[in-house]
Structures are given as C-alpha cells and as structure tokens.
C-alpha cells in the first residue's frame, strides 16, 4: 500500500522536490490535514527554496544573524522578527545589503567593519516620536537590517558636541548668576540701600560673576566652529563612507550612511522641516515634505541625501543663491502606497558595486593610500569612455557633483587616466608604429558640446592642472581630476592630449596627439 505521504507527494508531483510551491500556498496546504502539514514542515528542500526565494539567502541564517538548525527554523526566525508590513520589501533589502557587504568584504574590509547591526522596533519608534512622523516600511527595513555606519569620526563629533553643550551650560549658568546678582542689587537699592560692607560684597560678587560670564562666553566661542578629526583613526574614517566620494581641487566628499539616531539628530539640527513646500507631481497640490536625512559627507553640510517619507522620493540637497533646493537622486517619486525610493536607490548602488562600476582608490594625492575610498568615477560605460592612440590609453570618467551650484548650473567632475601600455597590451591600439618606451604630455585641447552636439567652447592649455606627466610601460596610470559646468542637463566633452616621444627635455621622436574620446556630461537618473 502506498503511504499517505507518498500519495501526497504523487498528488503534488514535483512541486516539493523541484521547488515550485510558493510559501503562501504551502501554508494553506499545511492547513488541509496533519499529514500535509507534517510533509511540508519537514521538507528541507522546500524550506531551502523558501529561504532563497522569499529572503534571497542561501544559508540557514536567521534574523538574529546566527545559523539555525534547519531552513524552516531560519525562515520562521525572519517571519517572527519582521511583521507583515516589511515582507514586500524585506527580500529586496536583504539582497541589496548582502551584495554590498559581499563587495566590501572582498574590496574594502575597513568599510565593511563600520556596518552596524540592525535597529530595533523600539529604536524606530523612538525615532518616529522625535521626528513627529511615521517612517514607511521600505525605509525602516533598511535600518532594521543594518543601522547605518559607526565611524571613528563620530567620536570626534560626539566630543565636540559634548564640549559645546558643556560650554553652553556654563554660559547659561554664569548669565543666570549675573542676572540674579544684578536683580538683587536693584531690589536693595529700591529698599533704601544696604550698608557699606554689604554693598561692597555685592559689588565684588557681581564683578566675579561678570568675569566668569566673559570667560564662559570665550569658551563657548572656542567650540562654536566646525570640528575635525584629531587622531589617525578619526582622519582615516572620513574616507570610509559606504556611498563613496570624489575629490576635485579643494572640494572633497565621501558619503556615509548615518545611523538612525544621527539621522534624526541632523534632520532636526538642519531644520529640514522648514524647506518650502513643493508641487506634488501626482496631484499638483502643494504639500510639506517629511524629510529624513539618511546619508552625508564627513562634513555634513558639504553633501546630504534626504528621503521624503511622504512620497518615497530620494533627494540630494543643493545650496545656491536661491537657498536650499532639492534635486532628485533617483528616477522619480514612487506611488504613495509603496514609498520605496530610498530602497530603490540603495538597490541601484548595490548593482553598481557588484558590476564593477566603482573601485577603491585614493581621493587625496597628499594623503595617498591614507585616503582610499570608494571612488564614484565609473569604470564602465556609459560613465567611462576609453581610447588608445599609439599605445597611450586614455580613460575618461564623469561624476555628477550636485552639491555644487554656481549660478544654478550643473557641475561635473571628470577623471582622466593615462597609461602607456605594455607591448602585449597594445593590440590594435598601436597604430602600425613601433612601441613607445616613453612619452611626456605637453598640452591639452578640449571641445565642449551642448545637448544638440554643437560646439559651445574650446579650451587649450599647457599640461594638465600644472603637471606634465611622463608615461612609461608598466608604470601606474597617471590620474588627474578637473571639473566643468553647464546650464543644460546634457552635454559632452572630447579632445586631444599632445605628447612628445621621450621627454620634453630629451625628445626621441616627434610630437603626436592622443585622442580623448567623447564622454557625456548628463545629469544622471541616480545620484550618489
């Protein structure tokens, strides 16, 4: 006789073994009979597929980060820890975090070490109470999994804030003491005055309190300005931003994900609620956005990303002549029902990391290896263009710089990488001539075009940023960064670099032009 369980497997066909039965249907099937329930509860192949499909996980890891005895126990752990409101977004958030952490573990362990454990429901409730508005599940789920980053720089910020608070408390106490003594003197004067000894004592007390007030005011002024890192660990941590950065001339940013507590702190400190109402694209009505600061550079005001929890939009803050402005950091605001713009933005960043679009590289020439960070200059098209002329390879990458707003123009930083390739690397890029052993840059020529392809400007000059690099096979790429700006949201640049064989002091051949291929200056759909 065929057993009941065998009959059930026959009825279900390959659904259990071949992982075709959805978890929701499995739960319904388990309610039909105890035999169906037992079959479903103990089928590890089925639960392994549920963990993979519903959570994006390949191991038996539970919501607390520990490995469970079975896949069913792991799945149950997530179900018990995350309510129904999270499940439309939980698999996406887990996958994005796992991809980011995997990339960091392989490419930048120092940043991987800054990622914190998840925030609790109590933490989220406290944040919502402080903010005065509710956070959508698509936002909360990211913090539930990992509560942003903990940087050594935070120690300096906390120390500075503590010093400011102490200085303010001292000033307030000294002022209150002076006010009280002066009020007492006035009362005594109205009452007919005091004897000479009492008057002298009162005057002495007022003088001492006034001196303390002046000292307290000086102490408060001493800590009023911005703070900076004081130790090597604090200095190094400014480059540990999860969302990367760039450096061009004297402007350098590296964006970190703020822990929930700091996100609330900066949301309130920067009075984001005062940003003027905007037009709701869906309804055409004015509304006041509920903004949450989620990511910022090591100097918060240099670059700040905010999530509009009312609509789900993701924005980057721009400051210009017209005051604070918001520019979209993701393709568009999601429907009011989902409000998952932050999650969508986060997923796209994970995609860019794992696809090899970004690398870890120094941001500051003077600090060199001490400034290693995730560089936002792309390594893949369309953000990068590449050409080889006579063995000289030029790679051009563009990063949009939304936080800079000169005359309401769009600013783009571009990174140019030059290298003289080894003979084995040349391929078709040699151009038929003998391989070069050395060459030196002499000058540059840029052609800048508008969105219609029309030339709007040309720039010629010696060297690049005052440098005349010498290229040799096998040496590291020469890298330099500069910037340009335009009113339109689209444009392009291209040009040539003039080199001489050998060096300018000892030429071994004629000058020749190396092509820099066209690269786009387009405001991107996703801004980081």
Task: Write the SSE topology.
Elements: H1 4-12, H2 23-30, H3 34-41, H4 44-55, H5 71-81, H6 90-107, H7 109-112, H8 121-131, H9 137-145, H10 153-190, H11 196-222, H12 232-237, E1 245-248, E2 251-254, E3 256-257, H13 260-269, E4 278-279, E5 286-287, E6 291-296, E7 304-308, E8 314-320, E9 323-328, H14 341-354, E10 359-362, E11 372-375, E12 384-389, E13 392-400, E14 410-420, H15 423-426, E15 439-449, E16 455-462, E17 470-471, E18 478-486, E19 492-502, E20 507-520
Helix pairs in contact: 2-3, 4-5, 6-9, 6-14, 8-13, 10-11
Pathway: Protein modification; protein ubiquitination
InterPro entries: ApaG_domain, ApaG_sf, F-box-like_dom_sf, F-box_dom, Knr4/Smi1-like_dom, Knr4/Smi1-like_sf
Keywords: Coiled coil, Ubl conjugation pathway
What can you tell me about this protein's structure?
The chain is an alpha+beta fold. The chain folds into 4 domains: about 80 residues, no CATH class; about 210 residues, SMI1/KNR4-like; about 70 residues; about 140 residues, Immunoglobulin-like, CATH 2.60.40.1470. About 35% of the residues lie in helices and about 25% in strands. The protein has 15 helices and 20 strands. The strands form 6 sheets. A 5-stranded antiparallel beta sheet has the order 3-6-7-8-9. A hairpin with a 2-residue loop joins strand 8 and strand 9. Helix 6 packs parallel to helix 14. The protein is flat. The termini are far apart. The mean pLDDT is about 90.
């Amino acid at each position: 006789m065929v057993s009941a369980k065998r009959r059930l497997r026959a009825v279900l066909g390959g659904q259990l073994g071949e992982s075709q039965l959805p978890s929701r249907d499995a739960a319904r099937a388990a309610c039909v009979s105890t035999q169906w329930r037992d079959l479903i509860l103990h089928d590890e192949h089925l639960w392994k597929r549920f963990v993979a499909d519903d959570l994006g996980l390949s191991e038996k890891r539970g919501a607390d980060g520990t490995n469970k005895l079975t896949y069913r126990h792991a799945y149950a752990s997530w179900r018990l820890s995350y309510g129904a409101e999270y499940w439309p977004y939980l698999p996406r958030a887990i996958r994005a975090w796992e991809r980011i952490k995997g990339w960091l573990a392989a490419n930048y362990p120092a940043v991987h070490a800054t990622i914190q454990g998840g925030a609790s429901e109590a933490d989220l409730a406290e944040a919502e109470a402080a903010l005065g508005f509710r956070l959508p599940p698509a936002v909360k789920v990211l913090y539930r999994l990992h509560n942003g980053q903990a940087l050594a720089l935070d120690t300096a910020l906390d120390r500075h804030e503590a010093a400011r608070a102490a200085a303010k408390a001292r000033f307030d106490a000294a002022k209150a003491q002076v006010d009280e003594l002066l009020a007492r003197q006035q009362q005594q004067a109205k009452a007919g005055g005091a004897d000479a000894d009492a008057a002298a004592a009162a005057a002495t007390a007022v003088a001492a309190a006034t001196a303390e007030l002046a000292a307290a005011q000086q102490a408060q002024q001493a800590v009023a300005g911005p703070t900076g890192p004081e130790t090597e660990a604090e200095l190094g941590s400014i480059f540990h931003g999860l969302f990367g950065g760039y450096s061009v001339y004297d402007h350098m940013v590296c964006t970190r994900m703020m822990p929930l507590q700091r996100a609330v702190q900066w949301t309130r400190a920067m009075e984001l609620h005062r940003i003027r109402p905007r037009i709701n694209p869906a309804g055409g009505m004015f509304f006041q956005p509920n903004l949450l600061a989620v990511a910022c550079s090591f100097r918060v005001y240099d670059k700040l990303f905010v999530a509009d929890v009312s609509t789900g939009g993701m924005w980057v803050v721009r400051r210009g002549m017209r005051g604070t402005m918001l520019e979209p950091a993701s393709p568009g605001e999601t429907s009011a029902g989902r409000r998952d713009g932050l999650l969508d933005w986060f997923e796209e960043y994970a995609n860019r990391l794992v696809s090899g679009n970004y690398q870890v590289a120094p941001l500051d020439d003077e600090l060199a290896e001490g400034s290693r960070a995730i560089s936002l200059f792309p390594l893949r098209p369309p953000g990068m263009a590449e050409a080889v002329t006579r063995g000289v390879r030029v790679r051009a990458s563009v990063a949009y710089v939304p936080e800079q707003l000169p005359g309401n123009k769009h600013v783009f930083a571009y990174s140019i990488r030059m290298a003289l390739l080894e003979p084995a690397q040349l391929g078709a890029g040699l151009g038929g001539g003998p391989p070069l052993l050395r060459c030196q840059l002499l000058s540059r020529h840029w052609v800048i075009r508008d969105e219609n392809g029309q030339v709007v400007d040309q720039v010629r000059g010696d060297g690049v940023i005052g440098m005349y690099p010498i290229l040799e096979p096998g040496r590291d790429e020469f890298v330099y960064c500069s910037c340009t700006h335009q009113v339109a949201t689209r444009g392009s640049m291209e040009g040539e670099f003039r080199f001489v064989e050998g060096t300018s002091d000892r030429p071994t051949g004629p000058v020749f032009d190396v092509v820099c291929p066209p690269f786009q200056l387009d405001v991107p759909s996703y801004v980081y």
